[in-house]
Write a structure and sequence with these properties.
Elements lengths: L1 H9 L6 H12 L1 H8 L7 H11 L8 E5 L5 H9 L8 E6 L9 E5 L5 H8 L5 E6 L9 H22 E11 L6 H10 E7 L11 E8 L12
Parallel strand pairs: 1-2, 1-4, 2-3, 4-5
Antiparallel strand pairs: 5-7, 6-7
Helix pairs in contact: 1-2, 4-5, 7-8
């Protein structure tokens, strides 16, 4: 079936060669194949799985998870599966501008997480969250400098949001298109978390500039020596 789809796309004479190459690579991608096999909605699910395996972000103490930019739902699925043994006691909320097909155990809110009305909807489920995670990306235009600025601005919004809604001892995970985030975001992590680091999951494509930041123990030891980002 994969070969038939691949052949169909590659025979489309109106398709740009770069698009055809992307589709061919995507179809053959081991994580795309694995996502279909494991019934994950996106290959990005494996990025979160890797992050959890390295950093144990879904600890036994985790009872609430907020997934910012959750659609199509891959990261929310990972959260429900890892926490399934305690799912009746766990609150999982997903927020996105784009709609999402329902996932059992996940409360979906359609809207912008920066909107005060949406924030009121979020706290109606939980005042504070043990994990706030974001696989969001800004709208890119292909201009590297502009895209990096947009990524940095989005991260600052995530950090500002986490400052209000992350629980004591909580964990923050977010994606960045910048190897080094803005000074404001760095200062937030250094001042409010006991530990933070930058991770490039194996499931993240080599040609992608994306990296992930993991910050643990919110309001922990200030400016701990365990910080290893800089």
């Amino acid at each position: 079936m994969i070969k038939l789809k691949e052949t169909k796309f590659l025979r489309n004479k109106n398709m740009k060669s770069s698009s055809a190459r992307w589709i061919s690579r995507h179809i053959k991608d081991e994580y795309v194949i694995a996502a279909k096999r494991e019934k994950y909605r996106s290959r990005s699910a494996f990025k979160l799985i890797e992050i959890h395996e390295k950093e144990n972000i879904f600890s036994r103490k985790c009872l609430s998870v907020l997934d910012l930019g959750c659609s199509p739902g891959g990261w929310s699925q990972v959260a429900t599966r890892i926490l399934e043994n305690n799912i009746n006691n766990v609150t999982i909320v997903g927020v996105d501008l784009i709609g999402m097909e329902p996932i059992e155990g996940v409360n979906f809110i359609a809207g912008d997480f920066c909107d005060l009305t949406i924030q009121k909807s979020i706290v109606s489920f939980k005042n504070k969250f043990d994990i706030i995670m974001s696989d969001m990306a800004p709208n890119t235009i292909g201009h590297k400098s502009t895209d990096m600025i947009r990524s940095a601005a989005l991260i600052e919004q995530v950090c500002e949001f986490a400052d209000k809604y992350l629980s004591e001892g909580g964990t923050l995970v977010f994606k960045s298109f910048c190897q080094n985030i803005s000074q404001n975001s760095q200062q937030f992590l250094k001042s409010n978390f006991a530990y933070f680091k930058r991770i490039k999951p194996k499931s993240s494509r080599k040609e992608s500039i994306e990296v992930y930041f993991v910050a643990k123990n919110f309001n922990g030891r200030k400016k701990s020596s365990t910080n290893n980002l800089l």
